[in-house]
Amino acid sequence: MAFGTQDDTDEVMNEINMTPLVDVMLVLLIIFIITVPVMQHSVNIDLPRASSAQQVAKPETVRLGVDAEGRYYLNDSPVSDAELAPRLQAEAARSPQPDLHIRGDKAVRYERVAQAMAAAQQAGLRKIGFITEPKN
Prior knowledge:
Blueprint: H1 19-40, E1 61-66, E2 72-74, E3 77-79, H2 81-92, E4 99-104, H3 110-123, E5 128-130
Parallel strand pairs: 1-4, 4-5
Antiparallel strand pairs: 1-2, 2-3
């Protein structure tokens, strides 16, 4: 055992390892070979012009009120029980279909409001909402 002696295998390498560099260059070359023909063979198309302003057609709202005595009001005009279903069917047939806003008096029986909801659903109205007043 000799201390201070060097083996011939422990010499310092003075050269750069070129293998990883060549691998990266070959991969980049293949990528460019594949993408360049795709970029040059584009089809020229004359596209139509369109405005970027979006047109929103808001559907109208139909207001159905139920007062404390259980009477129905469609758009603030009185409606009898027999007239309610045909009038709601006529509203449901409109395009775009209007939203139905139900405003029920807090003193009315829930049964009257439920009957109005059932009539609206049978008429084909899909957007039904309730109007309430916020607490103070």
